[in-house]
Amino acid sequence: MRTGVAVIALVVALAGCTAEPESAPLIAPDTPGGSAPTIAASEASGAGQTPPNDADRQYVAMMIVHHEQALAMTRFAPERAQNETVKGLADRIRYSQEPEIGAMKQWQRTFNIVGGHESHGSMPGMATQDQLNALGAARGKDFDRMFLELMIKHHEGAIKMATDVRGAGANVQVEEMADDVVATQSDEINRMKALLPTL
């Protein structure tokens, strides 16, 4: 799956950014015929990267929380969902968003960013506590429909956040993560909207 590969590649790339000082030195490129000094791998990790701005930092901090709520919703599905396709969608969401959370937390560590304390209640698409309680109490077809309705709204909120940061952010890794959110969750929204009328 394209998104899974992108997330794995991003984790690998970010892991390289946190290499220990004892890593083998790298040869820094220079002009033709010039000297080629060696530098530590940690010094090269940020080469050519635009540092994150406030929009990048806020997006990552908020999207971690946004994804965590989606995971909480998917954990109800194995015991409460009746429709096998709904269960499969819940698994798909969990298997894509768990590594995305890992990649975003690794990105924060790479840039020495401590998780923010923004107000997450205003994030688009977030379910209320009452809605989560109702979802947890539902069973069978009632659960299936409620899960899809809440998750469609949740995904639409994530896409809005990703679209916003693509215009306001500066860091290429955040842009790549946002692109993956838009691609993956747009596809999942289409699947969920097609499934809803059949329940």
Task: Describe the model.
The structure is a single chain. With 199 residues, the chain is an all-alpha fold. It has a single domain, classed as Ferritin. Helices cover 67% and strands 2% of the residues. It is built from 8 helices and 2 strands. Strands 1-2 form a two-stranded antiparallel sheet. Helix 3 runs antiparallel to helix 5 and helix 5 packs antiparallel against helix 8.
Strand and helix map with partners:
Layout: H1 2-17, E1 26-27, E2 38-39, H2 41-44, H3 54-74, H4 77-80, H5 84-110, H6 129-137, H7 140-168, H8 172-195
Antiparallel strand pairs: 1-2
CATH architecture: Up-down Bundle
Strand order of the largest sheet: 1-2
CATH domain fold name: Ferritin
How many domains? Answer: 1
Mean pLDDT reading: 82
Q: What letter string, H or E per element, gives the SSE order? A: HEEHHHHHHH
Q: How much helix, percentage-wise, in residues?
A: 55-70%
List the defining traits of the structure above.
Ferritin, 199 residues, mainly alpha, two-stranded antiparallel sheet, disordered N terminus
What is this entry, summarized?
This protein is an all-alpha fold. The protein contains 8 helices and 2 strands; from the N terminus they run αββααααααα.
